[in-house]
Structure formats: structure tokens, C-alpha cells
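Hi L.,

You mentioned the student needs an example of a multi-chain input paired with its predicted structure. This one should do, with 830 residues in total across all chains.
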Amino acid sequence: MINNGLNKILVHKYGGSSVSDAKKIANVAKRIASAYEAGFQMVAVCSAMGDTTDDLLDLASQVTTNPQPRELDLLLSTGELVSATLLAMAIAELGHPAISLSGIQAGIHTDEMYGKARIDNIETDRINKELNEGNIVIVAGFQGININDDVTTLGRGGSDTTAVALAAALRADRCEVYTDVDGIYTADPRIAKQARKITHIGYEEMLELACYGAKMHPRSIELGSVYNVPIYVASSFNDDPGTLIDSYVQEQTMENRIKVTGIAYQRNIAKITLRDVPDKPGLAGALFEPLTNDGISVDTIVQNTSADKLTDISFTIDKNDLPATLLTLEKITSVLGSGQLLSEENLAMVSIVGSGMQNTPGYASKMFTILAKGSINIDMITTSEIRISCIISEDKLEDAVQLLHQGFELDRVVN
Amino acid sequence: MINNGLNKILVHKYGGSSVSDAKKIANVAKRIASAYEAGFQMVAVCSAMGDTTDDLLDLASQVTTNPQPRELDLLLSTGELVSATLLAMAIAELGHPAISLSGIQAGIHTDEMYGKARIDNIETDRINKELNEGNIVIVAGFQGININDDVTTLGRGGSDTTAVALAAALRADRCEVYTDVDGIYTADPRIAKQARKITHIGYEEMLELACYGAKMHPRSIELGSVYNVPIYVASSFNDDPGTLIDSYVQEQTMENRIKVTGIAYQRNIAKITLRDVPDKPGLAGALFEPLTNDGISVDTIVQNTSADKLTDISFTIDKNDLPATLLTLEKITSVLGSGQLLSEENLAMVSIVGSGMQNTPGYASKMFTILAKGSINIDMITTSEIRISCIISEDKLEDAVQLLHQGFELDRVVN
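Structure written out for the whole complex:
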């Protein structure tokens, strides 16, 4: 059963919609089996079936409005155990030896931040043992174990990260992520009808796209970049070519020198504003450290200083974190001496991403002009080397994506 | 939070019907919380919610007709994780600290017989640590971990065994088993209308009742007996007094000296007969050892030797084990030199149980007479010191239970 000679390891990852029922699980089993038959040592990571995670969250919400994060993680981790064991059974049904491993059994050690845990290291002894015995190894995604032997989860979409981390730890050839879309597009095809599939993209651009909307866990791209794991994103429902993510750098030709790779977006953004805060050194630290300690991730930050030593600070967070954020801030605003604490929901972020934009002026102003022509008001702006993002009203989001896709001629550019 | 002074440990166990939805889980949380408020260190074991285990089995059957036992156990173990985490959340909602532990985390080590694993030992360090920190500890029932760090399950009803084993390992005051019936009856009240609740019963009698029908995992009673853990069985839906199981011995008075404690029954029995087997030494071993190795449990065994050195052997098994049993026997019958391999389904067993029967003649013949008067044919007979069982046709079972309950005047005897 051992693939002598070749002995190359391949990691597959299948999302929840790819394993949502027995028939789809059987289909996924066939895909894994055919890679095994082609001579690869196979490791496959799966998400929970369909809406399982939401169903479990719903169960928890029937019991309590404030579940303990530790309990919630143990609860949610069961979803991936179910799909992983069923997938192992389906592969065995095809006549190949398969074994499923929980996060603990797969040696996935994380920090202690329940619900948003990060992988510290992977002890691959058990997986290597199973591979060397000829087994196809199915790993329950999204989960690990912390220093107290308690189960942690990596956050929504965390199975992508499990897969890339395993590919890195096992020195796999590459990590193939199969999902219900057949690759990465220049914009969400449901919004921008002319969106094109990208065949090859660099980690950095993909990271910006993933952070700002594309259906990949950003941390998985980051990990892929650090450990140089090629990631291939394709559909589990057909054999259409997908998108390869690696250290690719776009060739600069005369025709496509000026380059935006894609339009990303994010919904469910909330904005917090603290008005009239005394502008003293250490202000930002005093403000954001308590939020970090609560595991709340702050995005765009804007600060305006005025002449009278008072300042306004605004920043964005995930809308779901709004109650916790307000709770924390109410405790510290008296210390900070803030005048007013304002919050706003129903915001969204739209971004243009492209490594071709680096060191080239004109993209930001072109973006703002396109949005202005569409009567879309810009609330906040943030930029990175290869991304420009605007916070806008959520109800203008679809217009913004379409206008930008059209304005930057993404339907025309050859990738 | 630590219960200084008292520091007594109580183990509760709640069955699947007691935690079948959020409302019932909240009700169970209240019961546990009030024992905690009364000063006990609380450990509670729960089964999977309602029909979860059947639903998971159904999922598996959609994927394969022949699930690997290891995968099946990991799959099924998730049901108890879900209920345990929800129960911990519900207790926290009442303002008490609670933590759920999987079988692994609770230190429950078993042998390697998937689906029917037996507990080898319990490492109580983690549970004791949590108790000493003032936590109410919820343990996922029915599961443990084997020497390979793989999850095992203890078989249907195994959560009872988890609870009693924990009570023994933790030297708990007693183990309280809460279920959807309010105690142990002289016969199944759904069949025998006059059935009476038994308030106090010895381990041995209860073991016979449990083995032969009452709603308790027999291994839990056995464990209770070995470690002398008092077990109290009551309803989770009301506060009616239940049944206490301990080393109780029935007082012998003039009036109730002649004593049958209860009628037990078991459905889904299959019978195997090997005809005309050469009667050589070692025959029974050669026949039953392969079955034992396959984890098939054999019940009643009857062997008749004839003059011509050929013998007929009959034995009963669980109907679900019939296909596996036939498969194994077909392999070895040629070695044994058996003439014919016959099987019969749709059988049941009815038993009278009572320590009062010991060393007293007349019970067996009275039982046979009662059944004969009801035109119920007896297929096989087996007896222990405190039990007499008859294998009969399953369609005569309800008649048999009613006639025996009436015939032995179980509605009249004071317990």
C-alpha cells in the first residue's frame, strides 16, 4: 500500500458545501481516491457538512445568550468530526484504506484564544505513521488543541488554514482547496456579471483579495506565503481549471502594465468613533490594547488631530464584535477622557487589489472618481502597497463593485 | 466556590430523552445546579440528545453499508460532546461555573473493542482539578479512548456505565441515573398494567433485570456492585421517588418469603443451531472463540448429546449480530464437521428474577405451567441462581409478561 518511489504528499481541502450530503461526500471520496491511485500520499481536510456549524450555533443560542468560548469551541468542533469520519467511510467503501483524525489526533497545537485560535505547531508523527501504513488520512478541519488539552477552533473558514498548515508541516507538494466556486475571480461574479477567473496569482495579491472578500481564509494565504506552499483553488463539482496561488509575479507588458487584479468587498462592518479625546502620547495603545486582549480585531483606523489638543479617532470592526467592543470601551472612555462614543452599523468595504499598482500614482484618484460618479459617498479610506479600500454604506456596495470592475476594465485585461 | 467542609461528590447521569431539546437541557441544568447549591461537588454524565445516535448511524449508512468500527465510534462520540457542551452552557447561564469534558479529557481509558469497549481505568486528575476549582463537571458519556489515542464507544446505553465508573473512581457518595421512567418496575408497565415500582433492590437482582430487559446498561450495575456504588434511578421530569440499587437484601418474612422481584424481557433474539456436530472435546471452544474474537456476545447455550457421538448445539445472539455470526460460522463449520447450520429470528426472552427464589424449588415449574396455560411454547431454557429465562416466539412476548406478572402475584407483594 505504500507509494514507494513517488511518495509525494498532496493535501486536499473540501469546504462545507462540497460535503453537505452523503452523495457529495461520495463524490469527494472519489476525487481523493483518484489522486491516491495516481500515486500520491493523500491527506484531506474537510469542513463541517453544509450548515452544521450554523445549526450548532443555533442550538447554543437556544441554551444561552452568552456561551462560554471554551464550550462553544468543543461544540463546534464536532461538525468536522462528523464529516471527517463519514468521508473516511466513503473512501473505505471505494476499497482504499482511510482513517479520520480529530485536531488533537492530527497533532494540531494552537494558542488559547478560543474561537480564533492560531496554530502554534503541528506534530506530524501520527499522520506520517498513517501515511506510511498506506492510509488516506482525513483530518477534521477548523480545530486544534491548546496547552490545557482543550479543543480550540480557528475561526470561520479555519479549515483552509488547517489544510495549508498541514501541507507546510508535511512538506506536501501542494495544497488543493476544493469549494463550490471554481477559482478566484476579478470580482464576485454574483455582483459583477463580467467577472473573469484568475488563473494564476501571487500570494500578496491573493492575501489582499482574501482579507477583503474572496472566499479564502486570509491566514491560509499568509501561511502559504511564509512556507511557500502552492495553493490551488478549484471546484469540487467539476474539473474546470481553477486558480493557482504561489509566488507568481505578473509579467509587465506594454498592454497590461497598469494593473488592478481584482475587486474585493466585505460586508458587516461597524464603525466606532471616539470624539474629543485629549491627544496625549499612548492614546492609541490605551484604546486598542484592551480590545486586542478581548480578541477583537480592529481594521481601518483614522485619527484627526485638531488645534485644541482634542482628537477624533474612528476605526472599523466586524459588526458581530460591536456589543463586546462597546462594553470594553465604555469601561475605558472615562480614563481616556473621551467626550462622545459613537457607533455606526451597516457599512461595507470595497477594495481594488493589484501588485501592478505599486509605486504608480493615479489608482486612488481613479477609484474615488468612479465612486463619486456613482453618487457613492466614501466614509473612510485605507491603503496598503497593493490595495486601496473605501468604507461605504452597505446599500451602495453592489453598485460600487460593478462600477469599479467596469471602470478598471477588469473584463478586458488578459490574466 | 469550593465546597469546603462537605466536599462530597455526587454523580448524576441524564439519558438522551432528558436532554432532547434546549428546554429539557435547561431543566437538567437546574437539577444539577440545585445539587451543587446543596453543597455537593457535581459531576454529570449525559447521553446524546434524543435520536442523535440513530441520526448519525443513518448518515453513516448513507455513505457505506459496512462502516469501519473505528470511524463509527469517532462519529458517534460527537453526539455526547454536543449535549455535554450545551449542558455546561445551560449551567453557566444559571450562574454556576461549568466545564464539559470529552471521554479523553475525562481520562476514561478503554480497551480496543470499538463499539463495545470496556473501561480499563479512569485517570481522575483533570476532573479532580476542575472540581477543586469549583466547577461543575459535565462528562460526555458513552465514550473513552484506547491505547492508540483513538476514540472508542461503550455500546448502546454505555453512558450508564460511564456514570457508575466515574462514581467509583471519584469515590462519589452515589450515582443518580435520571431517565424518562421514574424507577425500576416489577415488569414493563407498558405491557403489564399492574406493574409496581420497586423502591429498593439488590445489585444481583437488578443485574438480572437489567441484563434481561430493564432500561439500565447491565455493565453499570455490575460495576456498581463491584465498587459498591449506590445507584439511584429516577425520572428527570418529576421528583417522584425512584429506585435505589445497592447491596440490599430482601428481608424474609412469613408473608413474602416466596419472592419473585420482577419480570424482565428482551426482544430481537436470534437462535443458531448446528446439527450433527461430531462430539469431540474442545468443540465448544472451537465454536465460540472465533465469535468472541469478533466481539459477538453469545447468550443461552444448549447442547444435546446423542448416542451416535453427534450432537446438536443451539445458542442465542442479538439479532443484529446474525449476519456477522453466520459469516464467521460458515468459515469454521467445515472444520467442525457440522451437518447443518440453521438460524431463526423473531425470538424473545422472558425471565423471572428474584433473590428470594434461591434454593427454593417450584419456581421453574410454576413458570413453565403459566406459559403452557397461555399456549406459549418454550424454545430454550436458561437459569441462574436468581433468574429463570425462557426463549419464546416474539409475538407471544407481551402475553408471557402479563401472565407471569399476574401468576407470580407481583401486583400484590409489598416491596
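You could point out the following to them. Confidence is low (pLDDT under 50) at residues 1-6 of chain B. Chain B touches chain A at residues 21-22, 25-26, 56, 59-60, 62-68, 70-72, 74-75, 77-78, 81-82, 84-86, 88-90, 92-93, 98-100, 102, 104-105, 126, 149-151 (CB under 8 Å).

Best wishes,
N.
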